[in-house]
Write a structure and sequence with these properties.
By secondary structure, the protein is of the alpha/beta class. The chain has helices spanning about 5-10, 40-50, 70-90, 105-120, 140-150, 180-215; strands at about 25-30, 35-40, 55-60, 65-70, 95-100, 125-130, 155-165, 170-175. Helix content is about 50%, strand content about 25%. One of its GO terms (biological process) is ribosome disassembly.
Amino acid sequence: MTLSREWSRVITEPRINERIRVPEVRLVGPAGEQVGVVRVEDALRLAQEADLDLVEVAPEARPPVAKLMDYGKYKYEMAQKERAARRNQANTQMKEVQFRLKIDDHDFETKRGHVVRFLNGGDKVKVVIMFRGREQSRPELGVKLLERLAESVTEYGTVEARPRIDGRRMNMVLAPLRKKSEAINEVRKRREEARDERRARRQERSERSGQAQAEKAK
């Protein structure tokens, strides 16, 4: 580990047990109950009796707030959550769907279908309107079109970034209501169900074939 990473770890990790060098702390119990202000020696004794750690969770408070907890278990759970968050963030992609300002209803529904498919798959969608010629002088029409789209997909996503002008483009970002991992799990589940159904059909055909052969042999 480099010196800078080690220094960052020392700064960001809370003080625990004997490293807490203050006269008293505002103590919080393992279930979140408020114990009150106690001497740090008494707090350490309670931690030892409960086979837990005394962890300083709010050093800037006066007096500092400390909590009784299993610090090893806490660090493990936080690491698991961070890994899951990074994995989900890495899997999420930004898709782009372009609209024309003067779009007919059929094309609108087609484009909307693309947006829904991406959101349903757990991906964000950047919706783009390209202005042509004098269309750029009517940005309110672009906002109206994007709001119409957003209202039509509320079952699948929500507006993360409202419409804004970027040169001759107007952009809006929609975020999915469910995580990428959930969408992947659903696809995997559907594939497994389809595979099981195919296997059952093959088994049924095999049994019918065996029965037919048995009938012929009689």
